[in-house]
User: Fold this.
Amino acid sequence: MTLPQFAFIKANWHADIVDRALDGFLSEIPAEQVTVYDVPGAFEMPMLAQKLALTGKFDAIACAALVVDGGIYRHDFVASAVVDGLMRVGLDTQVPVLSVSLTPHQFQETDHHRAIFREHFVQKGAEAAQAAKALVDLNGVAARAA
Assistant:
């Protein structure tokens, strides 16, 4: 019996924070079961998630990003497009796609805020791994019942 395989896609914007989600994910799932991919930003995650899901190599895909209000664009629109895209990939491919894409209302480029969000991403990464494992188990049960 082969072990489940997971893809973990992470955005490079705010990598010092976002990379902590991978730390949390790997605290729950062994590294040899996880293939990591970097993308420039959150907006690029759905397309890569779709390409990876279509390969049939992964039992679940987790995506992590921090989308903040940079004052130039409406970050809530970007975050919505990303999460909607990830959900569509999961529904279209039947490969679970989990989002650790956070959009804080108040984020400041201070040491204090960065520390808070780094710790929060560790927790959210671990939660995504737990959810990924549960979904893989459910998919196995559903496949055996069919």
